[in-house]
Write a structure and sequence with these properties.
481 residues; alpha/beta; Aminopeptidase; Alpha-Beta Plaits; globular
Length: 481
């Protein structure tokens, strides 16, 4: 069986893949609570003949689906967590929550999970119809990407160590092969405990935890002048200590997300933030508890696998769209609160920005073109736990169109698009491109050798050290456990 025949299984079983996509969309679950989503994917993998293992790395909603034996081992990363507060009806261009305040797939991880399922189905089909070939394909079910860094917890426990390469993708408003890196991050909560008192009668007896939080935030504000330009520090006050201004607040908590281009840089910056927190506790005579929640590493790009993915994009081609699909996208675009925003990939490369701007001058509603292959070292301002996998083995990813042009990230508009025929076409296309690349890596050991040599050169003698300390466990959003 050749590669083209293997990829045809994705079209033959498209109804199964689309059903999985839509069932994930119908059951949005936030970080580390994706039990229904895990079962949907695991049941689909088992039905396709994969050996399924749940709860890997002691993460309840992480799993693997495995087929084949021997080397090379090619991994495909699947995600399936949703975002809180983004519940939305599908296929409509008006903000219409299904469950007010409920979660929704605003980052398209239902698409991501289904597209990676399509990829492993095709690679499995190839292996079982070429019995003389050695190779193993693994679907890695990776929970909690949004605010949880599920892959980092999995990498810490060695889940990806057997892989010769990993491939993944992300829903987007463009078709392209990704390059460059992103920001490593750490997320830490600083919890202050003081002494309550009557704010008018006995203020001298109180020790305000809220004062400590505010002083910490002021200190970090001054720190921003003295950190590298590409670093970021965000915060949210998660506990103000109560609603009564005439009571000195005995407790207050603040959650910080700290980012920097390299993992060592972000860990060093976190140490500086910690000193400020301890100083605020000293100034207010409060007690400080530091709760390390999660972290993820910067992505190490791999130009070798990027080139393999791009070649397969050219071979697979792009879907075509109906006038009804284009009209839906026009209506979605009309709903944007910031209509002048650019597609996210335009920020990554001048070549991409020029091409997108030229096409969109024609009032494009769907970016139905493949951006040229450009390898670059640009650091995206976002973060992804794909970075932790990329330190362990050669890793690369693509974007595939599932949303209207210029779609804003983490939006109800993305939720509205992620169960439509536009998204379905992107899912099937992504599956074919990734599967084709996986088959090429199985058939051409020299490609894997070159990819591994590139990773070794980029790491410069360094090896992966998980930025999440041992003992820290993944937690669901809002959990204190």
């Amino acid at each position: 069986m050749d590669k083209k025949q293997a990829l045809s299984i994705i079209d033959a079983r498209s109804e199964v893949i689309i059903e999985v996509n839509d069932r994930l969309w119908e059951n949005p679950e936030t970080a580390f609570q994706e039990f229904i989503s895990m079962d949907i994917l695991c049941d689909a993998l088992a039905a396709q003949g994969f050996e399924v293992e749940k709860g890997v790395a002691d993460v309840p909603t992480a799993f693997t689906g495995r087929f084949g034996s021997g080397k090379p081992v090619i991994g495909f990363l699947g995600e399936y967590d949703a975002l809180s507060g983004l519940s939305q009806e599908g296929g409509v261009a008006v903000k219409t929550p299904i469950v007010p305040g409920g979660p929704g797939h605003g980052c398209g991880h239902n698409n991501l999970g289904a597209g990676s399922l399509a990829a492993v189905m095709a690679v499995k089909h190839y292996l079982e119809n070429n019995p003389g070939k050695s190779g193993t394909v693994i679907y890695f079910g990776c929970p909690g990407e949004e605010g949880g860094s599920g892959k980092a917890f999995m990498a810490r426990e060695g889940v990806f160590d057997e892989c010769d390469a990993c491939i993944t993708w992300h829903p987007a408003s463009t078709f392209n092969v990704r390059s460059g890196s992103n920001l490593a991050n750490v997320q830490i909560e600083y919890q202050f405990k003081g002494v309550s008192a009557h704010a008018a009668g006995d203020p001298h007896l109180g020790r305000s935890a809220l004062d400590a939080v505010e002083l910490m935030n002021v200190g970090v504000q001054f720190l921003r002048e003295h950190m590298i330009d590409s670093a970021r520090i965000h915060y949210a006050i998660t506990n103000t200590g109560g609603y009564s201004p005439n009571v000195v607040q005995p407790t207050a908590d603040v959650l910080y997300l700290i980012r920097s281009p390299k993992t060592p840089q972000v860990l060093e910056l976190a140490k500086r933030v910690e000193k400020i927190a301890r100083g605020a506790a000293m100034m207010t005579e409060t007690e400080l508890t530091i709760d390390f929640i999660k972290a993820c590493s910067n992505i190490v790009p791999n130009n070798v696998i990027e080139s393999v993915l791009y070649k397969n994009y050219e071979e697979v081609g792009l879907p075509t769209y109906t006038e009804e699909e284009r009209q839906l996208c026009r209506e979605i675009i009309a709903s944007y609160e910031s209509p002048g925003a650019a597609d996210s990939m335009a920020k990554m490369s001048e070549v991409w920005a020029e091409m997108i701007a030229e096409r969109q001058a024609e009032d494009v509603s769907i970016n139905d073109f493949l951006l040229p292959h450009v390898s670059f070292e640009t650091v995206s301002p976002g973060s992804s736990d794909v970075g932790d996998v990329s330190w362990v083995c050669p890793t690369a990813q693509i974007s595939a169109l599932t949303w209207a042009a210029r779609s804003p990230g983490h939006s109800w508009q993305n939720v509205a698009m992620s169960n439509t025929s536009v998204a379905h076409k992107g899912v099937l296309t992504a599956g074919k491109v990734m599967a084709g690349a996986g088959i090429d890596l199985i058939d051409n050991p020299e490609l894997l050798g070159a990819a591994k040599a590139e990773l070794k050169k980029r790491l410069g003698g360094s090896s992966y050290v998980c930025p999440i300390p041992k003992g820290v466990k993944p937690r669901a959003i809002g959990s204190k456990n």
